[in-house]
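Suppose you are handed only two things: the residues of a chain and a line of SMILES describing nicotinamide-adenine-dinucleotide. What would the bound structure be? This form records exactly that question and the answer produced for it, so the two can be stored side by side and reused later without any lookup.

QUESTION INPUTS
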Amino acid sequence: MGRQHALACQRLGHRVRLVYDEDLNRAAQLALECDGADVLACPEDLMWDRIDAVFVCTPPHARGPIECAAIESGTPFFLEKPVGINAGQCAQLVGALRTRPVINSVGYMSRYRTSVRHARERLRRGAIIGMSAHWLASKYNKGWWLDRNKSGGPFNEQCTHFVDLSRYLIGDVEQVVAVADDKTMPLTVSVSLKFTTGVLGTLLYSCHSQHKQIRFQVFLENGVLALDGYDLAFEHLAAPTDATWALEVEMFCRAVAEGRPDLIESDLKDAIKTQEAVDGILSSLENEQPTALSADKNLSV
Ligand SMILES: NC(=O)c1ccc[n+]([C@@H]2O[C@H](COP(=O)([O-])OP(=O)(O)OC[C@H]3O[C@@H](n4cnc5c(N)ncnc54)[C@H](O)[C@@H]3O)[C@@H](O)[C@H]2O)c1
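ANSWER OUTPUT
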């Protein structure tokens, strides 16, 4: 994703000045693709006065220090989803941001899809009875992905998109009940959700599928609104995912250049609520009981 976002920035006419990856060869390869970018030997070498913004696209366990340093220097940051392996990991970051706000964006890119924006508008006009969604995919082929200490587990890594989409389209989650195939390494998870509006929903996740089977449905009094496939197509509206990644980068860059945080659909304050809902789901299946997501314990308050 770091490469994806760096090249998107270049296409928008921005300059990628500094690249860091703990795999220095990977950083060097990306620097070659980004005209004139310098490779940093370590993150402490980052010269904050040379940059306008930073993109953090590490695996979830590595998040925190760079974002905190960005806040300290007053530098806007883009953070990939999920924000960490759990919300607790972000406590210091959220505290720092509260003390010194900077423009920030979290990579829940589906919020920028035309289809999703259109569906959200449509949902404002109808009474929602419930939602039902499934995300069945194969395992992500990265060494860190199946390690819960590094990724937070497959549900945290992949299904976070649908937990976030549920919140974006329907509202905050009040209570969750979940069961899984295996409590210590859940690869298939079934969740019931109750939203603060009283709406109920269900979510089925698995990484056992050979190909992507993805659908998000919202039931209304007069029919069903369905977003289909990885690109979440709705009626005639569908844009490929890489175009959506480019759009979220464009909106972040515009927000920074124009000083307009209102252009950002997902910031850390909101993404923490998605992380807390995911944490609640994982806690429910581990403890075999419902989890209440109490607003007053929320990190984002
Ligand atoms: N929005 C999306 O649709 C989407 C798609 C793919 C990945 N992602 C997210 O992007 C993040 C990264 O995924 P990826 O596919 O790019 O993984 P990746 O493994 O391809 O890249 C991660 C890079 O981070 C480097 N790294 C690891 N720890 C580091 C540290 N402490 N400091 C510096 N560099 C470190 C690794 O060497 C690697 O090059 C994940 O959170 C993932 O969920 C989002």
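WHAT STANDS OUT: The pocket of nicotinamide-adenine-dinucleotide is lined by residues 1-2, 20-23, 26, 57-60, 62, 80-81, 107, 109, 142, 157 (CB under 6 Å). The mean pLDDT is 96.
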